[in-house]
Design goal:
The complex is a heterodimer. Chain A is α/β, with parallel strands linked by helices. Chain A is built from eleven helices and 18 strands. Chain A is 28% helix and 24% strand. The chains are: A alpha/beta, B alpha+beta. Chains A and B meet through α1, α3, α5, α7 and α9 of A and β6, α4, α12, α13 and β31 of B.
Amino acid sequence: MNKQKYSIFALLRNAVSYNENWRQAWRSPEPKKKYDVIIVGGGGHGLATAYYLAREHGIRNVAVLEKGWIGGGNTGRNTTIVRSNYLWTEAALLYEKSLKLWEGLSQELNYNVMFSQRGVYNLGHSLQDMRDIERRVGANRLNGIDAEVVTPGQIKAAIPIINISPKARYPISGASLQRRGGVARHDAVAWGFARAADALGVDIIQQCEVTGLNRQADRVTGVETSRGRITADKIGVVVAGHASVLAAMAGLRFPLESHPLQAYVSEPLKPILDTVVMSNGVHGYISQSDKGELVIGAGVDAYTGYGQRGSFHTIEHAMQAIIELFPLFSRVRMLRQWGGIVDVSPDACPIIGKTPVQGLYFNCGWGTGGFKATPGSGWVFAHTIARDNPHELNAAFGLERFTSGALIDEHGAAAVAH
Amino acid sequence: MRAKASSPDKGDSGGMGKQQPNRLPRGGRIDRSQPLTFHFNNRACQGYAGDTLASALLANGIDVIGRSFKYHRPRGIMGSGMEEPNAIIQVGVGADTVPNLRATEVALYDGLTASTVRGWPGLDFDLLAINDFCHRLLSAGFYYKTFMRPGALWKWYERCLRKASGLGVSPQLPDPDRYTHRNAHCDVLVVGAGPAGLMAALAAAKSGARVIIADEQSEFGGSLLYSAARVAGNSADEWLGKALTALADCPEVVLLPCSTVFGYYDYNFLTILERCRDRPAEPRQGLSPSPPEREGSKRQGEIRQRLWRVRAKRVILATGAIERPLVFPNNDRPGVMLASAVSHYIHRYGVCPGRRGLIFANNDSACQAALDLAAAGAAVAAVVDCRAAGPGAIADAVEQAGIDVFRGHVITGVTGRKRVRSVQVTPVSADGKTLNGASKTIACDLVAMSGGWSPAVHLHSQAGGGIAWSEAHACFIPDKPGQDNVSVGAGNGSFALDACLAEGQQVGLDAARQCGFEPVPFSTPKTVSATVNPLQPLWRTPALQSPERSPKQFLDYQNDTTVTDVRLAVREGFQNVEHVKRYTALGFGTDQGKLGNINGMAALAECLDKPIAEVGTTTFRPPYTPVAFGACAGMDVGQLYEPVRKTPLHDWHEAAGAEFEVVGQWLRPWYFPRAGEDRLPLPLTKKAGARGAETGGEGGDRRKPFATLSLAAQAPGEASAREDLPEAVARECLAARNSLAIMDASTLGKIEVQGLDAVAFLERIYTHNVAGMKIGRCAYGIMLGEDGMLMDDGVMARLGERHFYLTTTTGGAAGVLHWLEQWLQTEWPELKVYLTSVTERWATIALVGPNSRKLLQGLNGDIAFDQADFPFMSVRSGVLAGFAVQVFRVSFSGELAFEINVESDEALALWRKLMEAGGQYDITPYGTETMHVLRAEKGFVIVGQDTDGSVSPVDLGMNWLLTEDKDYLGKRSLARPDCRRADRKQWVGLLSEDGTTVLPEGTQLVEANTPGGRPPRLPLAALLEGSRLVGKPGRARGRARPIPMVGHVTSSYYSACLGHPIALALVSAGRARKGDHIHAALSDGRYVKVKIVSPIFYDPKGERQHV
């Protein structure tokens, strides 16, 4: 595929020609009748999967089918935090793989995903929080992941506006810090992967809803879509909140609950918060985007459902938590609020692997932690599909673990309690 | 409220004219007897009570209010309300400051200070205006295409980008104000108090319905506030006054001015933000009274904003419509305004925003601005109308007034940078697509434009309703509602006043009927309806050159999104409206695209050659307008963030000088330091005072049941390596082991279970044999999650055949009750079981130590405390020292111990009596820290500290608690193969090989399996952590070699009684490895060699608690 290379020179060249000669970032082809691999779901994970299939495994006859517009699901509905400081080795190595891919992603995709390693603080508010932090930081370091325990004084030095008063209702007793963590521009991740995958020959087909999975005996043969039947030997499904719906099409039942997870942004402010602050104890997390908006998240709505909106009392709790940590933000105004649908598994870890149906692969159950995993998730899922066998990094994340009991319980290490 | 004719005290009108050159000598709904001084960018200005900041700035002749986000173009005021995209300002100073307010929404008060939010170094001279000239380099999404190499420089690029972004400045101090929430129910909630909303509210209220009517403006009336129409024979204003009086006379009506309905959630739940301090100084009759304070004025604990949470049976959305700008080259110059805003400023504030106005419109409504300008004494340069000749009463009136009308013309250029100087007017073809004639330049300083009106369908959409394209009005109108709501008036596409009034009345009556009231009809007020020349859509004025080669035509003013940007997005494949929004930032400003989105969608439709209806809109999300975080949070901030729970004995502890620990919501005594006591440095040599202590650890596994009370889920202990130890803790521990100690255990969760099926229910929840428990006996019980992992533990006492008493961990109390209720209510509703939380009813006092029985026996009472009558693990009720008590003989320390439940309000009296009587045994109060040490010496688990949701009872060595011949929650999961692995992490004791190091809790454990028996080196990345190297892309990419972890330290203390540190840990296959050595990996990179031992360090046979 003939692709324009993006650079300052390309910008200059096109500025001279009134920006009239920019080419499409990706094509919008009609679906072919048959592909080697179909990826259902055009979010960050699906597009990354397609990209790595083409790039790492030479499988280029790939279609990404998207019901709406690419990046319109949870890829565009998160708080953009990237980190890898998970407790259990299985999860930590998977997220660390992802973080390493993030570290060169803009250059690899030739698309600035604005990955910004401004550090992530996970605050502790009690002695037990600090025990957990000590434990997690120790585990991270042994796993080769950068992590530090920092004191309230060090936190205050780095984030002067934070409230470390011992008179706070839940005073801050310390934090873990991952300096390599940070944020990225969420839309750009989807677009960057789409453009790079398209350049390698992947067909990205939007407005194409999968309505059924076709199988012959225990093999998958293709999909029915709103744009007709498409056949393929291998189908990878990565549709976040709607994984259960797709699984039902294959007669499978997954241990997933779909919850709304809300996020909020403030009006843009001059730079005031230079890092990412998360607290499990007071249940909220916050960073400031490059545009100046405070980006805020908190816990999932308790009720299950597919409505991408959520309830108001969840907003109240999130704002209370933010004001507890940053009393000066009380007069700042919330500009937008939205919800994504997260699929939460019993151990708060994803399901990435094969299914009882041959040729059908699922990548779901990311709960509240999917965005940071985007490149790594795509990388291991592509491997799993191409080799019909999971990579060692995702071997522990199979469906079998729910019957064997080999769970990877990351509830404690999730950004917020589920 | 009507304005007085002229200012009585600010001198002659000439002086005023100097101060406020654009203030009309009369008119407006301002109070000229109350002049106000305010500062804009340090310039002193004058205004009047009743002004908004915007009207006052216009009156003072200030044209440029701000700079745009990207190109830093000078911008003036464009609208008159919440749609304003340009006049974004910072109001107030210090703790009072608020960033990003719209000048059009800020009620003026004396002493107000306002400043511009963008522009460097300042508003008038802004260096970043260079962006305006490099705009072709800064096309939509340019930042995705550059700043990539060298990767290390991204941090610097980003810092520059961040500095250049942002609007206002965050307050730097905590908010001095208070916010509150209020819940309300009503039959009918009317959103918007314009003509349609007022009629709807009147109709519903007169029929008897409970009505809440809210409007974001400080005055009710909507378009009537600046209307020249006559209603029912009166002026609009007179009719409005009468209508408001009639409404206020209805008994069940709540009137909320200054109140924005900003969210429409499920089941007709709506949220309203009431800006209490923006209320008018003299409320109209009927408006709920409130103090006249304004934003920034002195406050005495009053509420700044009140957030209403309203559940309405029926919602009437009379939200009105938002006027659309027209898209033409340089349509953002200061002086270009919405036509309705021009009328608004003239009528409502007595401010004429220009000397020589020109009207540019594609519909009739803008002609009103021409008439208003003329009446205000301003020159009207022309009315430029893209439509060819047509009927229209208002247009006729304009011509009758002698105003030049250019039909079939459009504006094709604007001159003037900081204020419009002239416009270029060119004839256009009938379809508005091509220019067909010579241009003409007309001098003017004000362009009043109108591209038609867009109904404010936001709330309708938030409620899940669809929207449909109306060809007639060229706008989206509400389609089928998503909930129990109806749209009416201009918000429903009915723009004529007579239609608004009639529709409003009808839906009001309908709503009353739907809520069960008999509608009380009344006559609809008559208005004169004008002949209307239909609107002709004009989404962009044609130009001779492509938009790329023409001056900028703005769609979204705040974010500087132009027609060119949308065209570029489409060219690059961003064709979905949501993609265009995200790529070009169209509608991402603080006005959320209220003004610009529709023009953007039209530009997109043009590019794609599709009808606008097919392009669709982006999602309308709450909030309708921005809401302060503080208002969302309400009262529950600071010390009220969560309640602080204190035990009935708290004051005593405080007086005794206790240090406290936060455990969940509770405050618990941590330890009781005495005067002169210090912290003892560690490592300690063996304490001479450890009399009676058995050196422990290695002797035997647990075979017999052990009784424990797990008192805290979030337990104390210090997280990082202990370097010292409170002397008090050592003293308290020894007192408990050697004589007598007393503890307040009131925070224990306590639940009473009663009912016919109590046994059957508890059998399913707990793993032990509940049916076999005799009345009067206690048992240690654990409950598992569905995954088989330990969830909570406590003591269960059987008080009667069908009556049980349970304790839970302190932190787990609420969760356990919730868990039990969930099973009862949703899974086993057939069981007759009743649960009652009695946590607050009982205070619990633990008496611990060899002398505890003697103390109790020395008190008056009817309970026999000797071993034969009151064996270990039993419960007795009776009277003790005159108090009715329940006494449990249980032990969480391994010592002879009794836990006494006493009514909370008698707790202090009993405690005092015990302290007094215990004097002879040197009774010692102790806190959670000592409790933890004592239980750790005995190897008693603390749920939440020694467990984390992945620990099964088998891992903890609690097999003896699992009953084979019954089913209970989690049993099936325990049978899964992974739960039976031999190498699962098991709970064991650890002893530091050096005999002195107290291991930090949470420390990871690794094997000592490298050559030479040395522990492995930390991976490179971990060692580099903290150094600048790590943050750089590509740096930490070296293949990490993870070091396998075999477990971690869950609890760790210095045992004063044993004279050495002890630790508890989860270690892979630990129980089979007693005597093995492994290493603890400390966070400073050191390794400490440790030996695996039994988790029971003290009195391994458990004899002391049985004496």
